[in-house]
Structures are given as structure tokens and as C-alpha cells.
Amino acid sequence: MAVTSKTLPTAVSTTAEPAPPKPPGRFRQALPQYAAISPFFILFAIFGAFPVLFSIWISFHSWDGIGEMKWVGLEQYSYLLADPKFWQSIGNTLIIWVLSTVPMLLLALVIANALHNATRFRSFYRIAYFIPNVTSIVAVTMVFGSIFSNNFGLLNAFLQSIGVTKIEWLTQPWGIKIAIATIVTWRWVGYNAIIFLAGLQAISNDVYEAAKVDGASPRQTFWRITVPLLRPVILFTAVTSTIGGLQIFTESQVLLGDTGGPGGSGMTIVSYLYESAFLDNQFGYGAAIGWALFILIVLFSIVNWRLIGGGDERTARRTARRVATGKENADAR
């Protein structure tokens, strides 16, 4: 019997295939996008975040800007609360803020309503009312300084022409405040009017047509429809006017100089901050004044929101109570 030899199978040579490349992580994928937006964050960290954090740090130190810092803790803030000049600057700022903000917002609302109802030259009037906001504030203050001048002012010349005794605007406390408030009002009334106009254009005409059908007069339409529907816009303008009004500096500085006028009648909070930090070289105390101003702005912004923006919540609560009371009375019957 023949023996047949079987050939052994040749070993199959297998070469290991290279592993697929590992996909890049999410951070590596987004690295080009992060690199594209990094200049903004770098500049913000250097010129925005660092000065804010550093101002907090130096507010707890006594520092003249050059020498060694000395830790004093809360002494700057305790002295601030007992500083009569600081409280005088707060009083001056609040009076100027009220004298400028209240007429400014009312006048801006009236102008916006007139522009909204105008049929001719609407674009021209928008540009004309907005020009004061983009004009140099230093130049505007110098012009108003000549208008309110005690001896040769145009306002006193007008008053004398109608038989009224001239007023020492830039030497009397109330005259100084009225002069500064007038400059602020003239500069910002057009800006707020444009914002109000944008809010008016967002209100549907169907609402006004329905009011006309119901027999509402123009005055009733304005106070019962326009003003309530403009409440978010009014809140925005009130908050921004509060922030800007409590930071008044250029008008007082250009009009009255570093002293703030006779007796400091025109010295605002920022003017006192400037005097303490850059004239008296008390940078720690100036930083404390700045953070006190920040707290005031937050408090007054909250007050504005409660008085203006909180009306919607109060109305909703009243409506809910009425509905609940109606259901209880219906169940009782």
C-alpha cells in the first residue's frame, strides 16, 4: 500500500496593519477658533479685568502710586463713611441727576412720540436730535459755560432784556447744579428719544386702531397704551441714565475746574475720586470711592427696576388674586 505524503500547509504570513490615527480631542479641534477670539480675551484681561481686581486690592491699602503699599484693611471705607466731603459729593450728584434725568426722559418721550407721528422730514429730525450725543462734550461744556457766564453770558443778557435781574449761575450752589444738569439734558435727550422711537415703532398699529374704535382720546391713548407698552424701554433708559448720571465728571471739571465751584457745590462723586487719587495721590482712597460709587449705582438701578419694571409682576399678582377671589366667590355660591 503506497503511502502518500501530505504536504504541510505553508504558514500564512500576516502583517499587522497600522492602527487608525486617534481622532483629535475637542479642545484640539476648537483650538483654531479659540486662537481667533483670543485677542479679545487677552485685551479684556489686561485692560478690563486686571484694573477692576487691582482696584479692589489697592482699596485696602494706603498707596501714593509710587512707593510701597501699606495694608490698612477697612480703614479707607470707615473713613469714607465719616468723610463730609464725600457725602457732599453724593448730595451734589443726586441733585444734578434728578434735575437732568427726570426732564430729559420726559422730553425724550414727547419728542419720540412727535417723531413717530411725523409724516415729513422724519429722518432729518432723527439726525438732528442725535447730533448732540456725538458732539465733543468738552466743546459743548465750553459753549454752555459762555451761556451761563455771570457777567457776559447769553442767558443773563436775555434775562436783563426782559427786565429780570441777572443770576450768578456759576457762583450759586443751585445755579451751578442747574447749569450742569442743562448740559447733561441737552446732550442725552436726543439719544433717549431715538431709543423711545424704536420702542414706539415696535407697537402694533392694531392697538391704536382698537383704542380709536373704543373712543379713546389722544391723551388717553398716550398714557393708557403707549406708556405701559413702553415700560421695558423706559426701564432701560432709566437704568442707563442712572449709570451715566452718577458718573458725571467732564461737565463739572470743564465748567468749574478741580475745585468743583465755590464751596464744592458742583463737585460730583467722580470729581472727588479724581481729586483724591490724581491730585492728592491717595490711590487707595480713590479706589474705595470708586467701589462706593459702584454700590450706589447698583442700589439705584434696583430701585428703578422695582419702580418701573416691577409693575408687570405687581399687575400679574393682582390679576391672580382677583381670579382666585372670583373662583372662591363662585364656589361659595
From TrEMBL:
The keyword Transport applies. InterPro entries: ABC_transporter_permease (IPR051393), MetI-like (IPR000515), MetI-like_sf (IPR035906). Belongs to the binding-protein-dependent transport system permease family. This is Sugar ABC transporter permease. The chain crosses the membrane at residues 34-60, 94-115, 127-148, 188-208, 229-249, 283-308. It comes from Kribbella turkmenica. It holds the Pfam family BPD_transp_1. Residues 1-16 have a biased composition (Polar residues). It is a multi-pass membrane protein. Residues 90-304 form the ABC transmembrane type-1 domain. Keywords: Cell membrane, Membrane, Transmembrane, Transmembrane helix, Transport. Residues 1-24 are annotated as: Disordered. It is found in: Cell membrane. GO terms for biological process: transmembrane transport. GO terms for cellular component: plasma membrane.
